[in-house]
Each structure stands twice: as structure tokens, then as C-alpha cells.
Amino acid sequence: MENKTGRFDYLLLFGVLGLLAIGTLVVFSASAAVAYRTLGTPYYYLERQVMWAVLGLLVMIAASRFDYWRYQKWALPLFVVSVVLLGAVLIPHVGISINGARRWLGAGSLQVQPSELAKIGMIFLFARLFSLHQDTIQDFWRGVMPHLALAVVVFGLVLAEPDLGTTMAIAGTFFVMLFVAGARKRHLGALAGSGLPVLGAAIVLEPYRLQRIVAFTDPWKHPLGEGFHTIQALLALGSGGVLGLGLGYSRQALGFLPEAFTDFIFAILGEELGLIGTLTVVLLFMLVAWRGYRIAMRAPDLFSSLLATGFTTMIAIQAAINMGVVTATLPVTGITLPFISYGGSSLVLSLAGVGVLLNISRHTT
Questions:
Q1: CA distances from 135 to 68, 101, 131, 141, 145 (A)
Q2: How would you classify the pairing of strands 96-98 and 101-107?
Q3: Which of 72, 103, 114, 335 has CB atoms 3.0–4.6 Å from 85's, for a disulfide?
């Protein structure tokens, strides 16, 4: 049942727009020097980030106005398309390999990550399936395992890229949606327990992942190897102090910190805007998570509740992993910071998810 005002959740919108504005500024600041040195213009990455942000905002507005119940018809086709594209990424001469990871499709500067579409497809599909099979979700073999089998297909394809960070974000979102759908706690515990050996095998079977775990325990023992990213990120955060060095005054962005405007942009943000800047971003993410879960709890039906839960959880988990990596709380894994990091497909599809959240917020009780 629609609420009396039918208005969007403006606090959620404020949080997302705040993160997007900060992200655009820091992307420019972190990329200008590298862009000028390699491409002859400091505005290369800024122009593309603004372009993707505008497109994402248009998609968000459209998603916020569209009847979200009609998304159910798109759930399975979208999931199938995302799985096909994930498979295509792994085909030599089709998927684009960057730094040893095969995660992109496209050509030139127009590249997309199918794993970002897979996140959307997973959330839509399992929101639909869990709401349709609510009467069997507490049965492990009839309610949990068939859905898990579908999810494992995506987990395996994303992990094969390889992309452990995104795999963990997708798996965590699936787990939380399963909990909200009403799965038994002992079944969730069994899934979590069985997932640990799989995670351990994924780490051991890839030497670079094992090296990152070892470096995580003491990055200063590997200052020029696997510990390099962590050390440079901590130096950036530490040198920022409370107030920061100021926008455009980052030293790490001059080429010392790899992935300065993508995976490690939070370190540049801390260096330039200080503790005040990083705390502001953390508080904005907390605001987004609070409003998102509030929408999920007040949604008029299980399908919309699961949609809101899925999109909110995906944003929260991805943000937590990224900031955990940058602050040396978690081992290094490649995952972007939502609304902040440079990237087209991630930004557009994240804003699309926010559009769905805003849509559902207009119908909360």
C-alpha cells in the first residue's frame, strides 16, 4: 500500500548524491596528474566519470518511476544474459585482460564489467524466487539448495575472472537475502561453514592470493611486493591527518599508489580531505545503509523487501570490503568503492539500484 505522500526517501537520495559529488571531485584530483602525463589532458578521466554519472542519474530517475513489480518479468532473462556475458569474458580474444584479470567486454575506452550486471541480475532473480517459494524456503533440500545451485554458477564464473572481492560481495548479498526470506538459522550456519573451505581453497590454489594473505599479516616485510599497495595506502591516510593536505595536493596520486582513482581512491580521499573527509564518507554510507534497510523493513510485500535488502546489502558489503582493504583491516582484493571510484558500469548500475530503492520507498507503509 502506498504511503500518504508517495515521496522518495530524500535522506537516501541525499546520501547517494553526497557520495557521488565527493567521488567526482576526488576522481579528478587523483587522476589529473596521471591523465596529463599519459594522455596530455588532466580532464580525461573526469570527463568520462561525469558522463557516466549523468547517465547513471538518468537511469536512477527512470528506475525510480517504473513500476517495480514489472521487474519480476525481467528477472530471469537478465540473469541469463549476465551469466552468458560472464562466460564470454573468460573466452580468449573476447574478454579483455587487464593486470592479469579478465573482467571486461568491449573495445577501446568503452568497456563494461559483466559482473556488475550479474549483481543486478542476482538480486532481481532471487527476490522473485524467494518470494514465490516462501513456503519451502525453510526446507534445506527443496528451498535452499536449488537456489544455491543457481547462485554457485555466478560465484564460479566471477571467481574464475579472477575476482574474489566481487564474489564475496555477491555471496554475502545472497546470504543476507536468504536470511530475510526466512531460511532457518541452522541452514545458514551450514552454508557459512561449508563456504569457509571453499574460500580457503580459492586462496591456496592461486599463489598471488596466498601471497596477499601472507603480506597482510606484515606488509612491511614485503614493501616492494604484495605489501606495496597497503603501505602506500597507509602512508596516504596517515599523511592526511585530521584536515588533509587539500584537494589536488596528494603526493600518492602522482604515481606512487597504484589504482589511485579506482580501488584505492579512499586512501587519496584520506590524504587530501583528512580524517574529516573519510569520516564523512563513512557516515554517508551508514546513512545509505540505514535508509535502505528501513525501506526493506517497511516495504509492502516480500518481493520489494528482498529487492531493497539486496541492493542495500550489495552497496554496504562492497563499501566495507573496499575501505577494509585500504585501511589494512582486510587483505588486498580488487573491488571499487561505490559512487566514489572511477568506473562506468559500476557507477551506472549502482545508481540503477538506488533508483529501485527510491521507487520502493514511495510505497512503504
A1: 23, 41, 9, 13, 14
A2: antiparallel
A3: 114
Which helix (H) or strand (E) segment holds residue 340: the answer is none
C-alpha to C-alpha distance for 340 and 359, rounded to whole angstroms = 23
- Statement: residue 365 has pLDDT above 50: yes
Report the largest interatomic distance among the alpha carbons of the chain, rounded to a whole angstrom: 61
Q: What is the pLDDT of residues 218-272, one digit of tens each?
A: 888 878 778 888 999 999 999 999 999 999 999 999 888 888 999 999 999 999 9
Q: Which residues make Cβ contacts (< 8 Å) with residue 237, sequence separation at least 6?
A: 267, 270, 271, 278, 326, 327
Extract the C-alpha cell encoding 11: 535522506
pTM for this prediction = 0.93
The candidate with the shortest Cα–Cα distance to 24, out of 279, 335, 285, 341, is 341
CA distances from 232 to 131, 138, 235, 258 (A): 46, 47, 5, 9
Question: How many Cβ atoms from other residues are within 10 Å of residue 200's Cβ?
Answer: 11
- Sequence spans of domains, the chain: 10-361
Q: Is-contact 175 192, C-beta < 8 A?
A: yes
Cell of 270: 584520506
Q: Tell how far CA 291 is from the center of its chain.
A: 17
Planar angle of CA 180, 310, 181, nearest 5 degrees? 20
Name the one residue in this structure whose C-alpha cell is 592479469: 100
pLDDT of 161 reads: 83
Which residue type, as a one-letter code, is found at position 292? G
